[in-house]
Each structure stands twice: as C-alpha cells, then as structure tokens.
Amino acid sequence: MKTTYYGQSTVEIELSSGTKLLFDPFITHNPLAKDVDLQTLKPDYILVSHGHGDHVADLIEVQKNSGAKVICIAEIANWLNGKGIDNVHGMNIGGGFNFDFGRVKMVNAVHSSTMPDGAAGGNPAGFLLTIEGKKIYFSGDTALTYDMKLLEDENLDWAYFPIGDNYTMGADDAIKAAGFINCKNIIGIHYDSFDVIKIDKDEVREKFIKAGLNLKLPAIGETIDL
C-alpha cells in the first residue's frame, strides 16, 4: 500500500490490489500543484471530508473523468445528485460501511462546511479506514478535539493531520492529537497553500521528533509506502 501527496489535503492511497482512493481533490487552483496533471487522476473512489472549495474544487471533474464513487456526508451527496452525479455513497458521523476495498467509518471533525456555491455542506468529517490489514485515520480539516480519544484503542498505523494552523490544527495541537489517537506515524497536510498556513518545515519536523513521532511531509507528487 502506498500514498501520494498532491498538495493541500489531496492525497491518494493505492492499495496492493490496485484500487485507488483519492481524498479532497484540489489541484487546479493550487499554484503549488501546478505540475500535477488532473487528467491523470483516475481514482476508483473519492472521499470528501467537507464542502470548502480547497477540498472539492476539482471533485466534479475528477469524478466525471474517472467514474469514481464519491463517499461523503449526506448533504454533499445530495448536492452532487443535483449536479447530475449519481455514483455517490452518502454517510453521516458515526456510521460505517463495508466497501469492496475495506471498511470506512465517518468520524467527527471540528470545522465548518459550505459548498462553493453557498449550498449547505452538512457537517465536516474525518474517515477511519480499515484496509488491507491496516487502520488509517484521515482527519479532514479539524481543530484538536477530545473526540479523537475515541480512536486511541484502534491501533492506528497512520494518520493524516492538518498542520497549517489558522483554519485547522497547527503543529503543536497535531502533536497532542497524535497522543490522543495513540499513533506515532503522521502525514502532514493542509499547509503552505496560502500565506496564512505557511509553515517552517524544519521547525515542525523538530517538534515532532522531540515528541517521539514519525512525521512525513512528502513533496507534491511524492509517493511513500504505508
């Protein structure tokens, strides 16, 4: 199993079976991802954490190009239906479902959610994935929340955390969050795309090292093993 980072919160997980899961597609409006060819993204599933533009800007185009099934909160599912996209699986916080690639549980995130056209985006969410014998937490955009303690007994292998601050957790709260979920392996997301979420990577890496955590900050387009 491997993951590729495409900037902001856009990540892909490719299973050993070849199945591809893409999270929060935001490519064409991110200058840092200018070298990523949107047409090459052909996921089997697209998981959407919430409705903000920097998470759904390329959602419809990628879905139409790939035919992927979209997994999202019920309100976003309804919004997509209104856009003529029916290959959607709506969920809600606390619910889980067994897909052909593994199990997905939708968990709480503390943020906000409105679609780019002003439509209701439902509640923001994160995802707990049980895939190919591993457990992976994609937190979505979130503040540090004590709800994360509910995951501490899941024996998580990896977690994707926002670390850019301002709109989400910053590095210090992400370190606390790693303790809450009892996970040492963290992939940082949601940073550097805008001025207010730029980070000092060396400083952040040092903080995680001092906390005894394994932080990965892959370059855009870089693939790492999970």
Task: Walk me through the structure.
With 226 residues, the protein is of the alpha/beta class. The protein has one domain (2-225): Ribonuclease Z/Hydroxyacylglutathione hydrolase-like (Metallo-beta-lactamase, Chain A, 4-Layer Sandwich). It has five helices and 14 strands. The strands form two sheets. Strands 6-5-4-3-2-1-14 form a seven-stranded mixed beta sheet, with helices on one face. A hairpin with a 2-residue loop joins strand 7 and strand 8. The longest helix is centred in the last third of the chain and has 11 residues, at 171-181.
Q: Helical percent range? A: 10-25%
Mean of residue pLDDT? 98
Number of domains: 1
Give the terminus-to-terminus CA distance.
6 Å
For the biggest sheet, the summary is: 7 strands, mixed
> Given this structure, which CATH class is correct?
Alpha Beta
Following the backbone from N to C, one meets helices and strands in this order, namely EEEEHHEHEEEEEEHEHEE
Question: Low-confidence stretches at least 5 residues in length (pLDDT < 50)?
Answer: none
- Examine the coordinates and then state which fold CATH places here, giving the name of the CATH topology: Metallo-beta-lactamase, Chain A
InterPro entries: Metallo-B-lactamas, RibonucZ/Hydroxyglut_hydro, UPF0173, UPF0173_UPF0282_UlaG_hydrolase
Family: Belongs to the UPF0173 family.
Keywords: Hydrolase
GO molecular function, one term: hydrolase activity
